[in-house]
Amino acid sequence: MYFRQIADSTDGALTYLLGNLASQEAVVIDPAPRQLPVVRALLAERELALRRMLYTHWHGDDDDAAVLALLGVQAGAECVFGSSDRAGQALPDGDTVTFGDEVLHVLATPGHSAGSVCYLWRDRLFCGDTLELRGCGPLAGPGADAGQLYDSVTQKLFTLPGETLVFPGHARRGRTVSTIAEERLHNPYFAVRTRDAFVEACNRRTGAATRTGNSTTSHHAGAGRRTAVRSAA
Amino acid sequence: MYFRQIADSTDGALTYLLGNLASQEAVVIDPAPRQLPVVRALLAERELALRRMLYTHWHGDDDDAAVLALLGVQAGAECVFGSSDRAGQALPDGDTVTFGDEVLHVLATPGHSAGSVCYLWRDRLFCGDTLELRGCGPLAGPGADAGQLYDSVTQKLFTLPGETLVFPGHARRGRTVSTIAEERLHNPYFAVRTRDAFVEACNRRTGAATRTGNSTTSHHAGAGRRTAVRSAA
User: Fold this and answer.
1) ipTM score above 0.85
2) Between A174, A177, A185, which is nearest B177 by CB?
């Protein structure tokens, strides 16, 4: 196996490169535009052919179009959004993505966006913005739903084995990895709050942001998600 | 592969169970006495034969003798201290431990104790008390050496690939995993301080503790390491 976590030093966005050295195939998860030269260099170094670009979610930003333009034409890579946020090759819950004999499992986890998914590979979970380490991702746009997010995290992600390594979409306070057991115990949003309290806190925050026009820019990699509102802070 | 991180809820000590499901063999790293029933249950559940008990270091406590008594007689398991802290089957730097086709590499990392070692398995480092997550382990007893500890961490562990997962001997502030890249960037002891400043801080702390008789009890699993002095806090 081959695994690289590529951190963007400007905004903490994390790109993941997963390779099968036997079949010389790779997939990339949530590629950040600024990290494309690194991704390409790593693929070349190990002579890996990029088979899939996988997204955990999609907000339809211009910057992401650059990713498609740059990566999509390379080495026959196929872009799979995973998420139903964008029409195209959305992957249903329970589906799998293979590269050689390596298997990624798709978990539908709506909430952060309507079509958010997570990918499970071996004992590693790639959760995009569905679960922040010791935090809660923003509710980004009209498709977001606090109740669904709570259910996705507590009923789907938190039922995975405790040792499952959690690799998020962004570093938070310098942290780039956690485990399901840790987040189940210590995440201040999902470990402690009831569903009702969580949803109420999200609605309060969203309402306050709307009233004051204080819609915060999302932290997402290279993306102008200007309508995103951080929830449950 | 099979991997379990077993946390002791009372003192945060972490026991690691590594299994090869193909050959049905396992090794355990730094088994905490209180977790032995769990270790045994997991071995039985997966029908794994315990081949080795590996220690990253050894302080010669009575409680640890219980581990030997309980585990050492089971299923032909061999106790390898790894560390030269105890006469016996100490493993030299660069040696390997195998279970089926799985390979652990031994890294000599003196400092926390004279004979401390770390184990590297795939992209996972088991570092005992040599490196605490965002912290610095105690300098435990007469064999400890602040300068050696600094060199072991900065010149040996920090030269591993950034993605290497760091599994420590104890949870710290709820954290049970980090990466080399994270610790290289954010560990407040080793990422920032020069060797001289680090050694001076350790000596000052040790001296203060000695003068006031404030030798703190080590946090180590099930161990009466009563002479341990936390360093560089």
Assistant:
1) no
2) A177
